């Protein structure tokens, strides 16, 4: 049988088949996935093959195969510095929620997030939330940012989780997909998820009660089915989107507008900083690349952005 992992608690995995049957499964043998040194072989979102075993009149599953991952997000393991913990796999899209104020979301944060998502091969959609509260100046800021990010290929939607403005649009985008929601504390993630699926509120509370009883001290992800053929992965306690180690030369590849131009630079190892005949600098001078994006690029390449290179999961 084949199913998707919805939850993992230590050695047991909750797996749901396409027909909607749920089985508690264990792993048989060792799983080694090329290039990943991880503390957990299987993560929420993984597609696995398993066989049923009957034990005390109860059917449990034994997982013997894991399907290739489309993508996955990791965090560094707390104890073993070289190992990573896979938080979730096979994520179709992440909605990055942004607010202009209360709290402010800066472009350096947005761009760092987008770079990480690009490195993970996860599509990002920007949701500008709380538009019901903005004055003309803040709305102009939203319009400007939406223009900047649409131009380089990111879908942008202005929403209000409290009035429901454009929430149907978000639901339409979620249909048939596995989504995650991210953004600073206070941007409205819980409010939006509640607007999308009011009954989900209950489940999230159940989990945190479990936490309080001390059953799980570490954070873990969980997948939820929504009522309209959409799935979300909730990652309680995990803020931000982690970090990916990358070489200076690689950073530009995760800025779509820089990646597109790099073939036109004189040097093929151009870092777009001081080099002569640099197509990126030229585009910047012609206002074809947003200055805020280039500034974020420099911050990451020059390592000014300390948080970028440290593991900042959970302590935003
Ligand atoms: N006016 C207005 N308020 C909103 C909107 N969305 C969320 N809020 C309010 O913003 C506050 C924070 O919202 P939450 O949904 O708790 O934010 P969160 O992103 O889940 O925050 P964390 O759980 O800390 O990560 C709450 O008081 C919400 O009522 C919106 O679209 N408009
Ligand atoms: Zn260049």
Automatic annotation (TrEMBL):
Keyword field contains Transmembrane: no
Residue sites binding GTP per the record: 129-132, 183-191
Compartmental location: Cytoplasm
Keywords, sorted A to Z: Cytoplasm, GTP-binding, Hydrolase, Metal-binding, Nucleotide-binding, Ribosome biogenesis, RNA-binding, rRNA-binding, Zinc
Lineage top rank: taxon: Bacteria
UniProt: Zn(2+) binding residues: 265, 270, 272, 278
Job description of the protein: One of several proteins that assist in the late maturation steps of the functional core of the 30S ribosomal subunit. Helps release RbfA from mature subunits. May play a role in the assembly of ribosomal proteins into the subunit. Circularly permuted GTPase that catalyzes slow GTP hydrolysis, GTPase activity is stimulated by the 30S ribosomal subunit.
Family membership: Belongs to the TRAFAC class YlqF/YawG GTPase family. RsgA subfamily.
Protein name as annotated: Small ribosomal subunit biogenesis GTPase RsgA
């Amino acid at each position: 049988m084949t199913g998707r992992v919805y939850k993992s608690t230590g050695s047991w995995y909750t797996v749901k088949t396409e027909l909607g049957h749920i089985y508690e499964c264990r792993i048989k043998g060792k799983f080694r996935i090329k290039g990943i040194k991880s503390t957990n072989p299987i993560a929420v979102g993984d597609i696995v093959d398993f066989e049923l075993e009957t034990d005390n009149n109860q059917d449990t599953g034994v997982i013997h195969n894991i399907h290739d991952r489309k993508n996955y997000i990791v965090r560094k393991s707390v104890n073993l510095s070289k190992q990573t913990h896979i938080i979730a796999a096979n994520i179709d899209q992440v909605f990055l929620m942004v607010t202009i104020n209360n709290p402010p979301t800066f472009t350096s944060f947005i761009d760092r997030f987008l770079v990480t998502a690009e490195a993970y091969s996860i599509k990002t959609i920007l949701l500008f939330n709380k538009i019901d509260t903005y004055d003309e100046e803040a709305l102009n800021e939203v319009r400007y940012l939406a223009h900047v990010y649409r131009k380089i290929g990111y879908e942008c939607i202005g929403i209000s989780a409290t009035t429901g403005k454009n929430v149907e649009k978000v639901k339409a985008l979620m249909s048939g997909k596995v989504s995650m929601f991210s953004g600073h504390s206070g941007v409205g993630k819980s409010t939006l998820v509640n607007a999308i699926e009011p009954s989900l509120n209950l489940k999230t509370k159940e989990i945190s009660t479990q936490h309080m009883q001390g059953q799980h001290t570490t954070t873990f992800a969980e997948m939820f089915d929504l009522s309209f053929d959409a799935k979300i992965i909730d990652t309680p306690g995990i803020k931000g989107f982690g970090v990916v180690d990358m070489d200076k030369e690689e950073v530009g590849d995760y800025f779509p507008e820089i990646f597109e131009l790099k073939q036109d630079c004189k040097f093929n190892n151009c870092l777009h900083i001081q080099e002569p005949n640099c197509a990126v600098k030229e585009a910047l001078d012609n206002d074809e690349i947003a200055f805020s994006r280039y500034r974020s690029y420099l911050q990451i390449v020059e390592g000014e952005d300390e948080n970028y290179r440290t593991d900042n999961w959970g302590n935003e």
